[in-house]
Amino acid sequence: MIKDNQRIFNRIHIILDGLIIAGSYWFAWWLKFKSGFIDYNMSLPTSYFRRVMYFVVPSYLLLYYFCNLYNSKRASGRKRELYNIIKANTIGSLGLIVAMYMMGQTHFSREMIFIFWCANIFFETLIRNIIRYLLRFFRKKGYNLKYVLLVGYSKSAESYINKIRLNP
User: Are 167 and 109 in contact (CB under 8 A)?
Assistant: First the structure.
């Protein structure tokens, strides 16, 4: 099922990540400026934050790609995935702060960037764990299994069999 449609599944995953990044960005903006939970002095118009988001989403998607977040879920563990999410978001947030400084935009809210960093890590991890759970559920039902036929016997075949037994 999923094995046959891996390319479509990866594209849906990228679109979902883009929506999570944009949603986390707007959640951070709302929490900082509109919710009333945090004191603020808004010196930039909302349209400026919207324009910055058009830069943030593709940049973060590229960072996710370079941090190996679109590899197979079978091969990566939860800890490695969380580490890569934190790494990509940290690089992205630092890049955003540096870009704002280089453009002379010192009034862009660093608190909002921190809230975005926290929210994005939380929501990305949550969604990826849900996807991981769904994939395991489908594998238990017999979908997305990979069948292998080994012909002959050698040291490399024996090591391959051991790897399969360690990671069924």
Answer: no
Number of domains in the chain: 1
Does residue 52 belong to any structural domain of this protein? yes
Closest CA to 126 of 163, 82, 88: 82
Asked if pLDDT for residue 137 goes beyond 80, the answer is yes
Q: What is the amino acid identity at position 163?
A: K
- For the residues of 33-86, what is the DSSP string, one character each? IISSSS-----S-HHHHHHHHHHHHHHHHHHHHHTTTTS-TTT--HHHHHHHHH
pLDDT tens for 71-105 read 776 667 888 889 999 999 999 999 999 988 888 87
**Residue 1 counted as domain residue:** no
pLDDT digits (tens, 9 = 90+) for 8-49: 888 888 999 999 999 999 999 888 887 777 766 666 667 778
**119 in any annotated domain:** yes
In a domain, 76, yes or no: yes
- pTM of full prediction above 0.90: no
**Which residues constitute the domain of residue 32?**
6-166
32: which DSSP letter?
Answer: I
**What are the contacts of 41-50 at 24+ separation with CB within 8 A?**
43/107, 44/105, 44/107, 44/108, 44/109, 49/112
